[in-house]
Design goal:
Elements: E1 2-7, E2 10-13, E3 18-26, E4 33-39, E5 46-52, E6 58-60, E7 68-73, E8 78-83, E9 92-99, E10 116-117, E11 121-126
Parallel strand pairs: 2-11
Antiparallel strand pairs: 1-3, 3-8, 4-5, 4-9, 5-6, 7-8, 9-10, 9-11
Length: 127
């Protein structure tokens, strides 16, 4: 059984920063892929960043490279998304997800490859 709970969302002005937290409970200890997704109203969920627990591997989509950082603290069972230089285009619902593996190197960007999701936390960036 896997449970994920996100927190840390809020409203900020463009150029500001936020840190999102995802607390992960994985009784099987097999869902090593952890990722953050953004869903805008009326849009499909898109992957922003991912990591693989037990390794140093991290992945980012082009739109957030240099601005967002994904990290983990195993002692706290937490995955973080540190967001800086926020833009209005970053507005939406942010979700944390977990999976056991990926069928290809780019598959982490697709929501269909993740089977466990948090409830989401809203981020609003104003001009």
């Amino acid at each position: 059984q896997v449970q994920l709970v996100e927190s840390g969302g809020g409203s900020v002005q463009a150029g500001g920063s936020l840190r999102l937290t995802c607390v992960v409970s994985d009784s099987t200890n097999t869902h090593l892929w952890r990722a953050w997704f953004l869903q805008r109203p009326g849009q499909e969920r898109e992957g922003l960043a991912a990591l693989v627990t037990g390794t140093a591997d991290t992945y980012y989509t082009d739109s957030v490279k240099g601005r967002f950082t994904i990290a983990r603290d195993d002692s706290r069972n937490s995955v973080y998304l540190q967001m800086t230089s926020l833009k209005p285009e970053d507005t939406g619902m942010y979700y944390c997800a977990a999976a056991t593996g990926m069928p290809s190197m780019s598959a982490w960007k697709w929501a269909s490859n993740f089977h466990y999701w948090g409830q989401g936390t809203q981020v609003t960036v104003s001009s």
